[in-house]
Write a structure and sequence with these properties.
Layout (H helix, E strand, L loop, with lengths): L1 H15 L5 H23 L5 H18 L16 H30 L6 H25 L3 H4 L2 H5 L10 H21 L2 H8 L4 H35 L7 H21 L6 H23 L11
Length: about 300
């Protein structure tokens, strides 16, 4: 009787966990990101830290609105009806959120310490920031031009079809020209953020420390939850610990990037811009591991789509 009661409690938690589809997991990611931000804010007694964390949460919410992902609450599919769900997915998303905070701090660090627009790290930051902005704007343009039935399958069939993937050559050329102008504009005016960060008392030393400590928190959580427990769950569900599924492969790539960050910092003595770049690259890998694999590639984790 006691075992049945425990099992019922676990099943109830699984049914209530906000991880059944892409919409719920994105909401949970936002929760975790804000939670980690609040912990850091409490530690450093600086409310200005939200200036580079809340935009990431806001972009995640914007993605929900323009991507057409299903917002319906549905029962867990059989592949997810496992006690490993709570450990594997919860820990993975807390790790993702910590990496997001590190990305925000590293981006702010790059702008803060930049003295010249010709510095390679600043040019890299400008290009990445421009790409993020352009993809979101392009998705909005696509989404507004679709009917309600089409919006439900937006990412799979209509992603950026109004801009750089348009059937019209003129639209493609115009999109690339606009993209170039936007990236150059961010590069030219981006240093203006340096004054903003200075007014918020966000020092380079603080930002570098936050980026490092966020990864120091997220890396073991992602390692245990994302890789180790994921492998155990895979063996239980499919009979193999590792199948080189696209999600598994990109999770491993993400792990290697952050492992390189920690190795470079501890063993190589890297500080400042070089590790900040690694933090940015790592979060790009996180985005593709989470969204790119689910929405573009196919595999055993396809249920993580819309």
């Amino acid at each position: 009787m006691e075992a049945q009661t425990t099992s019922g409690v676990v099943e109830g938690i699984l049914r209530g966990a906000p991880l059944r589809n892409l919409y719920e997991s994105l909401i949970f990611f936002v929760w975790c990101t804000i939670m980690i931000h609040l912990i850091i804010e409490f530690k450093y007694k600086n409310r200005s830290l939200g200036a580079f964390v809340t935009p990431i949460a806001a972009l995640a919410l914007l993605f929900i609105d323009v991507s057409g992902v299903s917002k319906e609450i549905e029962p867990l599919i059989p592949a997810l009806q496992s006690n490993w769900l709570l450990f594997h997915v919860f820990l993975s998303f807390i790790g993702y959120a910590a990496f997001a905070v590190s990305f925000g701090a590293a981006s702010a660090y790059i702008v803060t310490v930049t003295e010249s627009k010709t510095e390679k790290t600043y040019i890299f930051w400008s290009i990445i920031s421009g790409i993020f902005l352009l993809v979101l704007v392009g998705m909005c343009i696509d989404y507004l031009g679709l009917s309600s039935p089409q919006r439900g399958e937006y990412v799979q069939n209509h992603f950026l079809k109004s801009t750089i993937r348009s059937s019209s050559q003129a639209s493609v050329i115009a999109s690339w020209i606009v993209s170039f102008i936007v990236i150059v504009g961010i590069w030219h005016f981006g240093l203006g953020l340096k004054k903003v960060f200075a007014s918020l008392n966000l020092t380079p030393v603080m930002l570098d420390e936050i980026a490092y400590k966020s990864i120091a928190i997220g890396f073991p959580l992602f390692t245990i939850g994302g890789l180790i427990m994921g492998a155990i769950w895979a063996n239980s569900a499919w009979g193999k610990y590792w199948t080189w599924d696209p999600k598994e492969t990109w999770s491993l790539i993400t792990w290697f990037v952050y492992a390189l960050y920690l190795h470079a910092r501890f063993v190589g003595g890297w500080r400042g811009k070089r590790v900040a770049i690694l933090s940015v690259v790592g979060f790009i890998a996180v985005i593709f591991t989470y969204l790119g694999v689910n929405l573009i590639l196919s595999g055993l984790h396809a249920y993580g789509g819309g």
